């Protein structure tokens, strides 16, 4: 009775709400509360439809729209492992790992890393690299510049972009951000004389380059003139260059080789496959001016195996290349169209990717024109050296030194610059 009085009081107090039938189990039987009659009746429940909500009730679906970064931060706080019994076990990560992950997610907001310990910076770079932060268009460049400004050659000391002209076109600004490179391979990229990257070679950021490979890049005398202008006039730019590869550039003539005489520290030079007119005169000029001797045996410096991408950003360059390959993958679907064109007797205009071979037919035709400087420890000498004629070489060196001194004195007395040279100087 007390239960029925409490229930009736509750029903009368909330009579304005249409809650529908209420079922109560009592003494093993199911009873339904009949509010219209004002009591509890022993009525079996009828299967009549009723609405859980009133007609004026409205529902608004609110989804959790937090980004993937926040969701990843919430799950990255734990390490999930399995026990021997197969049970899932999780443990909290260290505070250092949590902070490292948070900073790597926001690495583009770092103001400066100058003075920061390089051991921790390397771990931070690896964490950001694992999250592919350096592949992003704008934020990746800004983050990469913070590391290169602070650590220079540690980020990348050697860069090989051989036959990767698509990576150069897509990530040119990122490539230009690397500083203190000692080795740069740009072979088989068809850059030409007017490319922005070749102009960047003369900047102070790449004055540390000691090995430069520019094989098969459609260079001419004008390109060599622009590239050597800072060294010839301002004594800046590629002043520390030791190894230079200019092979397979048919537009380079005897005039362009004259611009290379400003590289006084040059130890190895490859001009095979160029458009030289008087080869014997060029050989004598290189020997007399900068002491380079013609090698009858191919040098190890130009086999393109010593230049590799080395540094913290080694995987970053691979990520760039993979992204470029992913972008050009849809072109594989054009094979069916090519077969259809062949069936109907039409020629297709799809250009295949031109791959660079290390030995060009032009090089074989013109002969091996590789030069080296004797008695240099850093230069890989040929396998065989000529013993005969050593006294003549010494006399030639003495004559070369005497002529160099005469040229220096004459240049100091009569230093004349052309109008084109002054135009180049104004650009720096």
Automatic annotation (TrEMBL):
This is Leucine-rich repeat-containing protein 42. Keywords: Leucine-rich repeat, Repeat. Pfam families: LRR_6. Belongs to the LRRC42 family.
């Amino acid at each position: 009775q007390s239960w029925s009085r409490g229930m009736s009081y509750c029903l009368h107090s909330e009579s304005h709400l249409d809650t529908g039938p209420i079922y109560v189990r009592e003494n093993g039987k199911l009873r339904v509360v009949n509010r219209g009659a004002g009591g509890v009746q022993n009525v079996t429940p009828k299967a009549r439809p009723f609405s859980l909500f009133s007609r004026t009730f409205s529902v608004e679906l609110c989804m959790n729209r937090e980004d993937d970064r926040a969701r990843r931060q919430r799950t990255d706080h734990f390490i999930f492992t399995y026990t021997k019994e197969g049970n899932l076990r999780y443990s909290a990560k260290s505070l250092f790992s949590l902070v490292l992950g948070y900073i790597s997610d926001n690495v583009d907001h770092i103001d400066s890393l100058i003075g920061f310990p390089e051991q921790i910076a390397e771990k931070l770079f690896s964490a950001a690299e694992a999250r592919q932060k350096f592949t992003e268009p704008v934020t990746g460049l800004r983050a990469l510049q913070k590391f290169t400004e602070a650590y220079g050659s540690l980020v990348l000391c050697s860069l090989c972009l051989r036959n990767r002209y698509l990576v150069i076109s897509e990530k040119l600004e990122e490539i230009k951000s690397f500083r203190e490179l000692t080795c740069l391979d740009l072979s088989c990229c068809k850059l030409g004389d007017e490319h922005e990257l070749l102009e960047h070679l003369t900047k102070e950021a790449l004055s540390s380059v000691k090995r430069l490979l520019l094989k098969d890049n459609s260079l001419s005398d004008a390109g060599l003139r622009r590239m050597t202008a800072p060294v010839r006039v301002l004594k800046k730019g590629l002043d520390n260059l030791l190894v230079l590869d200019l092979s397979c550039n048919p537009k380079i003539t005897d005039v362009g080789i004259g611009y290379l005489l400003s590289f006084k520290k040059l130890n190895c030079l490859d001009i095979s496959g160029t458009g030289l007119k008087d080869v014997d005169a060029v050989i004598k000029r290189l020997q007399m001016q900068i002491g380079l001797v013609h090698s009858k045996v191919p040098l190890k410096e130009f086999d393109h195996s010593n230049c590799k991408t080395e540094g913290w950003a080694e995987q970053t360059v691979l990520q760039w290349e993979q992204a470029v390959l992913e972008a050009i993958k849809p072109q594989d679907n054009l094979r069916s169209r090519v077969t259809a064109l062949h069936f109907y007797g039409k020629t297709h205009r799809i250009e295949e990717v031109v791959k660079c071979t290390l030995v060009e037919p032009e090089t074989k035709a013109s002969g091996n024109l590789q030069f080296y400087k004797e008695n240099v420890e850093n230069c890989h000498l040929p396998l065989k050296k000529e013993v005969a004629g050593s006294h003549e070489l010494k006399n030639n060196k003495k004559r070369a030194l005497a002529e160099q001194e005469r040229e220096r004195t004459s240049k100091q007395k009569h230093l004349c610059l052309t109008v084109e040279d002054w135009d180049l100087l104004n650009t720096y």
